[in-house]
């Protein structure tokens, strides 16, 4: 058995409202699983090797619940449109390039390198419709030691000819082949069904995806209630639906036993919210993307208060950056504007809540992830804030808050995923 101890200032969520800090604490890890955080190392583990990170902070690895790997190449560009025009003008032409495995190889190398050095340890990623390129992305993420899900996108209508799959049957056949090739091939990366969103997926395709979800016990990821034009279009395409979420739910692709992530949920109504709660749907809150595409701001503190599953996401390249620290900052800032300008009944997010979303909140989609309590997988990032100098000593709590607003990849000194040190 491989067992070790990490020592440093250990921060984790006690619950959605409170960060708990153990200064000069000990995190005990056995076979990749945490045994807990201790102020003094218990006698029974006294003989284990200790890696002393000194004055650095040790945080749970972060979970990015929604991002698009092929869009990394145009991050920071094309932020002058709303969702549907943005997809047609920038996104679909770029994603079409991943038909070429050589292009995918170069682009996904860059994406993986950036993700590796970020605070992110778990991901749920959209690739493109291309089977070969999607498998390549899975290989790269797995080799890097990251964990989570990657989806080959399905889209058989309402999109560029260069991306549209020939038919529902062709899309399903290709998807099943990809699942067969990848579902037990990697240590840490697994397939997830990925109907892009209702406008690009026919009823026949949705029905077939449900069959695959059951056959292979696969979770689902998609987009929900992001933008007003999108929501109106879904109503036109599915006049029988009582809300956007219902258009997924009728096909059995909206939570339940296999697990489901829905990105955005900016404009979800009461019925949709109730259905998400009932079905255990995970909301991937993507604040920067929602600002860049002028989609709006999701009422996240309300979702938390209602007891929904909520995590945080970068939604690159709707979002411009892979940093989950930035995502936390954007979530807090956006929530303040929403509170001031839109609805004073929905409270702004606190630092503690944003930290929870990025760690334990999203992490629970992947199992026991996002905390250091007994039984959790050991995902950890060690943060060195030595370059963020200050004229007087600061509390660990203050240093953590500053890291959220001021840190970048250069402050990530070490990273562990499921107990394995990546750097
Ligand atoms: N809805 C459908 N596709 C996309 C996408 O690529 N990005 C975002 N933000 N929303 C979408
Ligand atoms: Fe997205």
Q: What distinguishing features does this structure have?
A:
single chain; 423 residues; alpha/beta; Urease, subunit C, domain 1; TIM Barrel; 2 domains; four-stranded parallel beta sheet; 36% helix; binds guanine; binds fe (iii) ion
The helix content, as a percent range, equals: 25-40%
Biggest β-sheet: strands ordered side by side in the sheet: 3-2-1-4-15-16-17
| Secondary structure category | alpha/beta
Assign the CATH architecture of the largest domain. Alpha-Beta Barrel
The CATH superfamily of the largest domain bears the name Metal-dependent hydrolases
Silhouette:
globular
Order of helices and strands: EEEEEHHEHEEHEEHEHHEHEHHEHHEHEE
Number of domains: 2
Q: How many strand elements?
A: 17
Which hetero compounds are present in the coordinates? Answer: guanine, fe (iii) ion
Radius of gyration: 21 Å
Strand content: 15-25%
List unreliable stretches of 5+ residues.
none
Give the CATH class of the largest domain.
Alpha Beta
Under CATH, the topology of the largest domain is which? TIM Barrel
Mean pLDDT: 98
